[in-house]
Amino acid sequence: MAKRVAVIGSGVSGLTSIKCCLDEGLQPTCFERSDDIGGLWRFREKVEEGRASIYQSVFTNSSKEMSCFSDFPMPEHFPNFLHNTRFLEYLKLYANRFDLLKYIRFKTTVTSVRKCQDFSTTGQWIVVTESDGKQESTMFDAVMVCMGHHIESFIPEQSFPGIEKFKGQYFHSREYKSPEEFQGKTVVVIGMGNSASDIAVDLCQIAKRVFISTRGGSWVMSRVYDDGYPWDTVFHTRFSNLIRSILPWPLLKLVYEQKMNQWFNHENYGLVPQNRALMKEPVFNDDLPSRILCGSVMVKPIVKEFTETAAIFEDGTMEENVDVVIFATGYSFSFPFLEQSVIKVENNEAPLYKQVFPPTLEKPTLAVIGLIQPLGPIMPNAELQARWATRVFKGLTELPSESAMMTDIVKRKEKRIKCQPRDDAMEGWALVQGKQGKWKARAPFLPSDVEAPWKTRKGGTDAETSTLPTGVFHSPVPAGEDVAAPEGSIAPPRESLPSEAPDGAPPAPVPSEAPVVLLSRFASVLQNQETRASNDRPSHILCGGMVVEPNVKEFTGTSAILEDGTVEEKVDIAIFTTGHHSSLTLLEETTTPGLTV
Ligand SMILES: Cc1cc2nc3c(=O)[nH]c(=O)nc-3n(C[C@H](O)[C@H](O)[C@H](O)COP(=O)(O)OP(=O)(O)OC[C@H]3O[C@@H](n4cnc5c(N)ncnc54)[C@H](O)[C@@H]3O)c2cc1C
Ligand SMILES: NC(=O)c1ccc[n+]([C@@H]2O[C@H](COP(=O)([O-])OP(=O)(O)OC[C@H]3O[C@@H](n4cnc5c(N)ncnc54)[C@H](OP(=O)(O)O)[C@@H]3O)[C@@H](O)[C@H]2O)c1
């Protein structure tokens, strides 16, 4: 009989886990507490208990090229960085393509996962679920915990004396949805991570004053990197990863800092990370530096104390009449349904081998998927973890001894404290093949398949370029098509700049509720709600909020015919930014046929 596997959660990690179970001939049952798939990527106006919550303007900060599953590339016409609605659309395409929905039991919360009495021989678990007030216990041969780690708000109230006296509103970034309700207010955002920066930029267009208060600064990067490529397709090339893995730490730190300061000098903005020795996750925000220069976001040190109405900062300055404080201070996580003897979380760290397996279990039948914070996308890492875990469940791959796993865990912890709080990407093929030494696993691969590494030489780490025809990795299935790619084929080119629409398909459309802005020679840039977090032109283009088009040849009643013969249907507004001198004459002179002024 196929092994029954309980999968907890149907976000990115849960979906790929179901798929990997099926690939290995296992029998998955996925329990999802909410009523749909997508996890964090399913935006809702209201925060739901037990599920990650995002704000309306969230875009991926990892590109579509690097954030897809290895066997299911994103549709060609998707922009390079995706609005959350677009990423959810991708997950739905993935679930439909592989027929995953039938394995998911929605509105079913896992409340307890306990070892069976004969666990030391069977490795089995009793999973208790609750649905519609009814409890059910089921036995499973293995469990994949895919519940995400952005559910529990972390508000360090003890570090902010006086917050209990503060008469304004204060809440965690998890509660923040959109800026409208903050019109005319003075807001202090605490923290300098991606949430804090996005929210400050979001708010500054509508709030009276916005302060971002940071204890340690952050490196701020643009999504648009060298030569206009999405940052991660350049940062995570095989070559640069190889260099990073062999450079001594002090030199690597220098190179990293230099790269981080390439866009702007962080010292001039008061943003230099205090602990420069740590290779922290950068903030990806195309807008923040210009908002700071324009004074619409003001950088402040950490708040020393709150009064009923004011914030007093560490440098002695004080801001009166603060209406709102948003704590964008990150998350903590726990496994409420597991006993501490299985996984004991301390200081927001779970002692897991390669962030996946509890090392002390008599049988390796429980895996945590997606609890990884790489400097890059989580999706391919979660997929590799899931592939590895399912092979371990099946007995195709063995884990090292408990002591070897413990040593690895301690080493990782030391590295996090000493220099790199982010995780390394999964050492994909080594683990999936059951070989622990990176080089041992790679050595036979290199001479035997020259083509794959060559073609994907710019493509990233093991996790990010795992679509290799080594027999271990899957062949890609073209998104939205039913035909599997031929055995041994390689993923489509990972950079297409910007996304090119297939023949006849509309170019990089944005989700239907957002206006598309066409930038023809005579058109202007409008910021729409979705793209306001990224208002410079290259990032608008990579995020799909703006499409650059040739000049308009002719207008019809509702559409614009462009010089290259393409037609944009359903144009609502044409704005002429054709200069100011005798503008009417100019407009009349340049009026395109068909335009009624
Ligand atoms: C604002 C924001 C932006 C981000 N942007 C990026 C990005 O651009 N790129 C990137 O790689 N990563 C990004 N991340 C990280 C993000 O965590 C991953 O992209 C991804 O969503 C992780 O998926 P997951 O399936 O592990 O967790 P989730 O997406 O959180 O899904 C977990 C699922 O488990 C369910 N669940 C939880 N507990 C139970 C239970 N007891 N019983 C049943 N079901 C349960 C939840 O309802 C949920 O559906 C971002 C995170 C945040 C907060
Ligand atoms: N796709 C996107 O655009 C996007 C958007 C939002 C979030 N995300 C992702 O979601 C994850 C969570 O991001 P996040 O920004 O919510 O959290 P985060 O990255 O953990 O950042 C938390 C911030 O709060 C600060 N902080 C924590 N404790 C503090 C204290 N006691 N006093 C003062 N400051 C304190 C931290 O400062 P220190 O750095 O000094 O510790 C840090 O600046 C990240 O992986 C991020 O990449 C992605």
UniProtKB/TrEMBL annotation:
Gene3D superfamilies: FAD/NAD(P)-binding domain
InterPro entries: FAD/NAD-bd_sf, Flavin_mOase, Flavin_mOase-like, Flavin_mOase_1, FMO-like
Region described as Disordered: spans on this chain: 450-512
EC number: 1.-.-.-
Chemical reaction(s) catalysed: hypotaurine + NADH + O2 + H(+) = taurine + NAD(+) + H2O; N,N-dimethylaniline + NADPH + O2 + H(+) = N,N-dimethylaniline N-oxide + NADP(+) + H2O; hypotaurine + NADPH + O2 + H(+) = taurine + NADP(+) + H2O; trimethylamine + NADPH + O2 = trimethylamine N-oxide + NADP(+) + H2O
Entry's localization field: Endoplasmic reticulum membrane
A Pfam family that the UniProt record links to this protein: FMO-like
Major localization listed first in the record, in broad terms: endoplasmic reticulum
Membrane topology per record: Single-pass membrane protein
Keywords: Endoplasmic reticulum, FAD, Flavoprotein, Membrane, Monooxygenase, NADP, Oxidoreductase, Transmembrane, Transmembrane helix
Enzyme class label: oxidoreductase
Listed GO CC annotations: endoplasmic reticulum membrane
One example GO MF annotation: hypotaurine monooxygenase activity
Transmembrane segments: none
Cofactor: FAD
Protein family: Belongs to the FMO family.
PANTHER family attached to this UniProt entry: DIMETHYLANILINE MONOOXYGENASE (PTHR23023)
Function: Broad spectrum monooxygenase that catalyzes the oxygenation of a wide variety of nitrogen- and sulfur-containing compounds including xenobiotics. Catalyzes the S-oxygenation of hypotaurine to produce taurine, an organic osmolyte involved in cell volume regulation as well as a variety of cytoprotective and developmental processes.
Protein name: Flavin-containing monooxygenase
